[in-house]
Amino acid sequence: VQLQASGGGLVQAGGSLRLSCKASGRTFSDYTFSDYGMGWFRQAPGKEREFVAAISWSGGSTSYADSVKGRFTISRDNAKKTVYLQMNSLKPEDTAVYYCAAASTFRATTRNTDFDSWGQGTLVTVSS
């Protein structure tokens, strides 16, 4: 599957951004976007990639990293094959390249190893 992330940019601390990730071309014969969980990860300069948020196939279940709980919201529109990450009250430490990923499970999984397709990333820079 191909994942195209967008919506990154430069924002001041306290501001908001909304990331989008559109999926296309799921490779397995009987798989569709709406069957699988999706997630967002991020990688800051000099740091390892870390989990940010995940959502189940239906959108009924979500998971968040402690560092973004209450500030970020993940959602999905299965008709548009798109997953979103609404980021509010942004902090300088949120600065990173954000990646969307498609899971091999229907759950809102947080495990890196459950994701088998990754987008190219979109840069979010939060200035103080």
Explain what this protein looks like in three dimensions.
This protein is mostly beta strands. Helix content is 0%, strand content 48%. The chain contains no helices and 11 strands. Strands 2, 4, 5, 6, 9, 10 and 11 form a 7-stranded mixed β-sheet that branches. Strands 1-3-8-7 form a 4-stranded antiparallel β-sheet, with no helix packed on it.
Summary?
It contains no helices and 11 strands. The protein has 128 residues and is mainly β.
Low-confidence stretches: none
The proportion of strand residues reads: over 45%
Q: How many angstroms separate the termini? A: 37 Å
- Taking all residues together, what is the mean pLDDT? 92
List keywords for this structure.
single chain, mainly beta, four-stranded antiparallel beta sheet, globular
SSE arrangement:
Blueprint lengths: L1 E5 L2 E4 L4 E8 L13 E6 L6 E6 L6 E3 L7 E6 L4 E6 L8 E8 L11 E4 L3 E6 L1
Parallel strand pairs: 2-11
Antiparallel strand pairs: 1-3, 3-8, 4-5, 4-9, 5-6, 7-8, 9-10, 9-11
